[in-house]
Amino acid sequence: MAIEPSYASSYNRIASLTLLTDEVLWELTNKKSSQKILSLSSLVRNRSYSCIADKVANVKSPPSYSVEQIVSMKPDLVLAANFNRPSLLKFLKQSSIPFELFKSSGSFSDLWRNISRLGEIIDEKKQAIKMIAGLKRRISVIKNPKQPQKLVSYSSELFFPGKNSSFSQIAKAAKHRNVIDEYSKDGSWVRLSSESLLTIPIDFIVVGIRPNATKKQMIAEISGHESWKNLPAVRDKKFLFISNAYLLSLSHCMVDAVELLSREVYEQLPR
Amino acid sequence: MGIKIHSVNHRLSKGFSLTGINLDIDDGEMSVIVGPNGAGKSTLLKVAAGLIKPDTGFVEVSGRDIREVSSESMSKLISYLPPSSSVMFDYTCEDIVTLGRYPYHKGLVSALDRKVVNDSMETMKIRHLAGEIIDHVSTGELKKVMIARCLALQPKVMILDEPCASLDLSASVSLMNLLKLLCGNGMSIVLSIHDVHLASKYGDKCFAMKNGREYMAGDASSVLTKNNIASLFDINEYELT
Amino acid sequence: MNSYLVKAFCSVLLFFLSFPLALHFGSTDFGLNDLVNWFYSEPTMDETVMQTVLFNIRLPRILVGSLVGGSLAAAGVLSQGLFQNPLASPSVIGTTAGGSVAAALMFFTGVGGFHWLSLPLAAFTGCVVSTSIILLLASTKKMHSVETLLLAGFALNALFGAVTSFVLTLLLSDFQKFPALMFWMMGGLDAKGWWHLNILWPSVLLGVVLAWRISPKLDVLALGTDVASTLNVKVNSLRVISIITIAILVGAAVSVAGAISFVGLVVPHITRIQFGPHHRRLLFYSFLNGSTLVILSDVLARTLWSPQEVQVGILISILGSVFFFWLLFNRHKFSGS
Asked: ipTM more than 0.85?
């Protein structure tokens, strides 16, 4: 059953099922409060997606892979999100395990709300407030570029995040913009044709780089790709490499992505 | 000449065998194969047509051992008609008859091929069915088309498995008459038949089979007596009028 | 008026018209008028972009689509002749499934990223391997009937389908590979360029030549395997060559365009209703019709939800089946030659 947000919460056996809650919890907890975390999500050690992958390498809390594992650990609260698998959510709803559903559409206001709520859950409200304030400050000091740049997120399938996606929000906070915004009506992901891609004015291509890939490999892949190779931005090698984990994150690592993006653009543009 | 089967033994997988088969059919002769179901008639005809290579023994067509004849030559000597045929696609009757001459035209039909096909259809009196889809004609007409297909090859030997099956009496009679006529022109014909009446009336030679062996062979009239038929089919003589 | 000539004319006309039509339409506004202007040296602003769109994006894509559609239809003709069944298609003997499972493994292991050629090669190999399995099974037991082939095909389809699905579930958490594999499995012509055309046309040519040569023998099969044998058609080797040719044709198409299905079933079936069952004629017009179908479907795939793009395999299935229904109900108007 889903629980209502309450004020005096004392959960001591918390199971986190998403990277979002993993990462925020990790940031919020100190040595004492980290005892409350029973397990983290199955992606937390995946260096392609998790920004705390290296940090949790030696941690006690095991990643949970299956519902059975979660249940057998007897958590007193499970943290799930609206983007978990529907079958998992359905199971949680029908079971008697207390869980809380976090929602994130990629916006920063979602992020502040989620951090705040997580702070309440592990009794670290002050820490949460401090964290949010710090993140907001970091965003506020992002330099205004001379000219906001038109960005696109690289996808080999031409499957792009659209309006109001986390990528769009990150780009906006970095004082640039996701050029695909105009092509997506409802804010979901869009699949463009090669032709359309060719006609969109693009300043920089943001490439989410995975730990086992090098920049050289990615440049070679993009330059050889039928749909991308004819783009002026590709020919001029206007690439911005951001770690994949930050780029796709829905947690506070989004702010890291904003800073990285802003800095990358600044370094590549003529002064 | 014609077709000769020499001491053929062949074991089929079902625990059924042909044993010691010897058969001799001359040019211009019609030989009828009779016997109860499961006697091995179809198997024998397949051996004769070269479809089954017997374990022992061999077949001679036109004086040549078929093991030494190329399959191309064989295909021009023998026409085989299986007991039933169903054609999946919408070929016309003329298409089907033309396919009978495949060993000659191999897909590229010449004027000569067309003429022979025409003549074959004329002989079987199915010229009017040329453009009809094979699926739309009656059973009797289908049989005639198939026989015309056999004729189109202009073979030396025709091997027909139950050509009168699913034909009514009048159609059967006219078919047997026609086959007799072809024999008159020098063709050897071997066929299996259930109707012993027609067998004795039209056949020159008769080969009676039972349990994979020769039961009796010789002139049709002497083989197909009431006594012989009764014991061949294990029925009481009194039940035969 | 000779109805065959009319139908032939329509088929050929549609085939030739589909090319300029497909060149004209797309998700951007460039069209044949731009081409004409360019010829007559009236430079437009986006000249380089226009050239790229028309010559480097649309044109190779159309040509690839034509060969893919034609070869899949040709493979369909062979399958239906091989099995003497108008409902057969290359996917029945598990060829397409083999390509899919190879592609899935490529995506999963990430080997596909090393070279752009590795995915097409893998898919082609998958098609050939699964077809070889069928051939092996068919040659160990004496081929009494075609049912053994069909059953083996079903088993392969089940096995490969299961493995592919399994790989898909393993890839669920990978936000880049999972959609990539899914798009591949739906079959599409997106991002197909001159490179793809160059690896496609030799196989298609070989496959079509082989198919042309064995077509008359497939006609003889209509009389049954026994009669065909007596007419000097070696049925077993005909089956082997048919299967190999199907593997080449489908392998080529799948390696480049992913798992497009339906063309091999619907196009020969419809073409047979129009042009009759003779395999040479059927092969020729099926190739043309297959090409037309894929090219025109691709135009729709590129324009219906512009600037978004839909996988053409999906559209073909929808369009193909609707048209098929219509044709079935109006069958009496289109009797064979």
From this structure: yes
